[in-house]
Amino acid sequence: MCGIVGYIGKRQAAPILMEGLHRLEYRGYDSAGIAIGNKGALRLAKRKGKIRDLEELKPQRFKGMLGIAHTRWATSGAPSDRNAHPHCDASGRYAVVHNGIIENAAALRAQLAERGIAFSSETDTEVVAHLIALMDDGSPLESVVSAALRLVVGTYGLAVIDAGRADQLVVARNGSPIMLGIGDKEMLFASDAAAFVRHAASIVHLDDGEVATVRADGYETRRLDDGTSTVKTPSALVWKDEAYDKGAFRHYMRKEIADQPEAVRRTLSGRLDPRFQTTHLGGIELAARDLLDVNRIRILGCGAAYIAGVAGAHLIEQLARIPTQAEQASEFRYRNPVIEKDTLYIAVSQSGETFDTLAAVQEIKRKGGRVLGIVNVVGSTIARECSRGIYLRAGPEIAVVSTKTFTCSVVALALLAINLGRLRDLSHAGGARLLAALEALPDHIAAILAREAEIAQLAQRFARAQHAFYLGRAAGYAIAQEGALKLKEISYLHAEAYPASELKHGPLALITPETPSVIVLPHDDLLAKNLATIDEIKARGGPVFAVTHPGDTPVPVDGSFVVPKLTPELDPLLLNIPLQLLAYHVAMARDCDIDQPRNLAKSVTVE
Ligand code: AGP
User: Fold this and answer.
1) pTM (predicted TM-score)
2) Is 2 a catalytic residue?
């Protein structure tokens, strides 16, 4: 999705902004641009394509101590040089970068056109630059921008530079994140802290409906609607610059797969309570009495976060015997959901910025429901909107596909499941067994990762396929869903997850010798059923690969990867690790852009 970065201070802005753009690359984009202010004029460079294409225009040489830059992920107007941001008014005095969607852009364009204004792009953003130019009566820039934005319907994280006011930049937020980074006599801002971590010591998140004037020595925030001042408290940046490095790995995805043992340790840290064989979750801020009143749980998220919710729902039902369902936040928010008093809602999101998940949280809150957030990015919008929950502490996830944050989300849900279970019927011994398994999880993951070569070999047998099935039952089905999502996202191979039990009700017709199936085969009480599914596929000539545990009975498959048995509730998590590596190696064999797969963005901040 689009990214914004801005700078004002004592140094040349352009190199800092270009570095910031590189830091935002992981989010997915199709064009990029920059505007630098100097001596009453703006210098602009923008280009379709990658940031290295923009660099050919040599913007890093532009002189000036303030500027704004942008990576665009096209919504209105195709990816092109002219549609890339920043967008200017006719005089070239004001430049705007914008994330989000202006819903009344067509009407505003028509009104501006009637006044003789010619447009130089097809974007919704350009209208804001023209509105600012029309409304500038010499008042402070912040109030001119606020007046322009009061005419706008839609979502925005937005930044404005005015060649005539070289001591300030203005940013505003409504539905799309903007945060300020406070440095040493310099200020930065961005849609994602990744863009400025190297230069800022602390961070301030703008809230929806706020506008800020940013100067080298500080900032002022106000409400967009009535101009009243707001008070913000900066917090220290949690993730330092090194956390964003790829290290010796070729891809962020591979690095983040390797991060998992440490990431899980951090998710668990300080949260296991061996005295009562339960878990300690200070951030949920709900007393035991409140948790006992919970009769139903609904988990919401999108993509991999939703699938983590499916796995978590199984854990909660098994361990706490509370009816629990996961649902895509994008569906939930649009079906006028019934919000029940005795239901606990949980929003799962790596970025904490996914628009649909945020909208679901807001809908629940509006109707008086209780929502916990399971979020990775500290201070993100969903984390702040939920105000209580469990932080993953997985460290920054840069690859578009989720790996470590999927694992850590399921671990966080396991912590919650144990907590709720120990308030109900989960025994002391049961709690002890699960806590021991959680503590052992990082070492088991590390041991699986050490056997990467086995998976790489298996991957060669998938590389030429066009279609694949991923099958599983119950918790294994959640892992099949996640395995298929990873494969399709980065290798572009069509992978369909199906409950193994449903295969014979239709998709069996698609089984051929060219269509491999991956079966998630934990040694649980559904093993015999899953073995029968394998027979059904083999009888139709379909190749079958299993992720499973070592056992006495040989499984009649064409290839398998075995992981040790830890404890039934957590075994599915271990079975997922080889599937992450499988997707990675298939994508490698197919020469795909692993960290920035086509058409995808890391954090989907639009509807
Ligand atoms: C996962 O591999 C994808 N990148 C995607 O499905 C992602 O999980 C989804 O967009 C939700 O993102 P979030 O966790 O930041 O809310």
Assistant:
1) 0.90
2) yes
